[in-house]
Write a structure and sequence with these properties.
426 residues, alpha/beta, Molybdenum Cofactor Biosythetic Enzyme, Chain A, Molybdopterin biosynthesis moea protein, domain 2, Molybdopterin biosynthesis moeA protein, domain 3, 4 domains, six-stranded mixed sheet, 30% strand, elongated
């Protein structure tokens, strides 16, 4: 397979390693330059949880749409209760009732009252509600033993939402309570950003299908369950293929087919991303499109690559599980979230905590360090796990999160206050 050198200035066709490594910041900037947010579509509001609004929501009607009782009691004219107390009650005649969904149809006159339940419409001719506990009922005669002011115990029209108010901004990720409010506005459909379809292609002669027992010289695919879940978390729809053997012609055909499928919005190729004799993904990407980056100054995910086939972004993820997770966190996450209209930054919760042990690094390389949070001499502290071990995925399951050592530092001394990104599901 020939590799056009003018398309791949950073790829070493001799297979002797990376000609140069991109910084993390450079690759992230390339992703932002080449990956655009998806267009919009309409969806049923009931299916809108965690969807991203494509248009701001402006109320067209009030919530509630009518004045309603905020207490169980009696609706009446407030000025007729002035001076009422326990010893000198005012007597009213009960002429009917108002219940939720069943309003009193008449007009209340002087000396009259209507029994009313919480949430029921306020009858015409009344302007206050006296709670039932301040009344005494004898057939249709009501003794009112409390003075009330106009508007007392009444929920006014639009007290929750007034017409013409911008309630939710474009780009908002919808929460359960948002759907409740949208239902109150009577919006059965909303405009949202389309969910990007992400092809996940797993490669490797040694890889068995996920969740199968390993056998001699072969291991089960650990990366696809992780990548599928991460893509879904970030608002994408995963389309999984594999495991596929490392046969150049088959891989090239599959990659070309995916890149030309209009339903595929990005391609993540896992495995075969380095410079070994069976690492074909970089050369295939270079021959079919543009290999913009091959090799990143990031531990443990240096064999990461990125490029384009036409306008389709293609991310090359290392096969070692921890490297794969690291590369997804720094780059795959950003691609999916940018496409799906989300904030491209990490969705992980973060804490400021003190480092319990020294962490070493080297200038010019960023380190992704898994950590545990444990009780230490000064309360909860951060304890680093192994920095290396790119194939030891159990290290990430034992970890509570990670810290990042920037490429302009040689590490952190013990006691440093720093940001911990927690693996908790956001």
């Amino acid at each position: 397979m020939s590799i056009p050198s003018d398309k791949s200035p950073i790829y070493d066709p001799r297979g002797k390693g990376f000609r140069c490594r991109s910084t993390v910041a450079n690759l992230q900037a390339l992703i932002m330059n080449h990956v655009a947010q998806m267009s919009s579509e309409n969806c049923d509001t009931r299916d809108g949880f965690r969807r991203v609004l494509a248009q701001s929501i402006i109320s067209e009607k009030p919530i509630p749409p009518f004045d309603r009782a905020a207490m169980d009691g009696f609706a009446l004219k407030a000025n007729e209760t002035f001076g009422s107390d326990y010893y000198t009650p005012t007597i009213f005649t009960m002429i009917g009732q108002s219940r939720p969904g069943l309003a009193f149809s008449g007009i209340v006159k002087t000396g009259e009252a209507v029994a009313i339940a919480t949430g029921a419409p306020i009858p015409d001719g009344t302007d206050a509600v006296v709670p039932v506990e301040f009344t005494e009922i004898n057939d249709d005669q009501i003794k009112v033993r409390e003075s009330v002011t106009p508007g007392r115990h009444i929920g006014k029209t639009g007290e929750d939402v007034m017409p013409g108010i911008q309630l939710m901004n474009e780009g908002r990720v919808l929460r359960p309570q948002d759907l409740g409010l949208l239902s109150g506005l009577g919006l059965s459909q909303i405009s949202v950003i389309k969910k990007p379809k992400i092809a996940i292609l797993i490669t490797g002669n040694e890889i068995l299908p996920a969740f199968e027992s390993g056998s001699e010289h072969k291991i089960a695919d650990m990366n696809s369950p992780m990548l599928i879940s991460l893509v879904e978390r970030d608002g994408g729809v995963p389309f999984f293929i594999g495991p596929v053997w490392d046969i150049p012609e088959i891989l090239a055909s599959m990659i070309s087919e995916l890149a030309n499928d209009p339903k595929i919005d990005a391609i993540f190729i896992n495995g075969g991303s380095s410079t070994g004799p069976e690492d074909y993904a970089p050369s295939i990407l270079a021959s079919q499109g543009q290999l913009l980056v091959h090799g990143v100054a990031l531990r443990p995910a240096s064999p990461t690559g990125f490029g384009l086939i036409g306008s389709t972004p293609v991310l090359l993820l290392p096969g070692n599980p921890v490297s794969c997770l690291c590369a997804y966190d720094f780059f795959g996450c950003r691609i999916v979230r940018q496409l799906s209209g989300r904030n491209p930054e990490w969705p992980y919760p973060k804490k400021q905590m003190q480092l319990a042990q020294k962490v070493s690094s080297v200038l010019g390389r960023m380190d992704y360090v898994r950590v545990q949070i444990r009780n230490g001499p000064n309360g909860e502290m951060v304890y680093p796990l192994a920095v290396g071990g790119a194939s030891i995925l159990s290290g990430t399951t034992r970890a509570d999160g990670f810290i990042v050592v920037p490429d302009d530092l040689e590490g952190y001394p013990e006691g440093t206050e720093l940001t911990v990104w927690c693996y908790d599901i956001p």
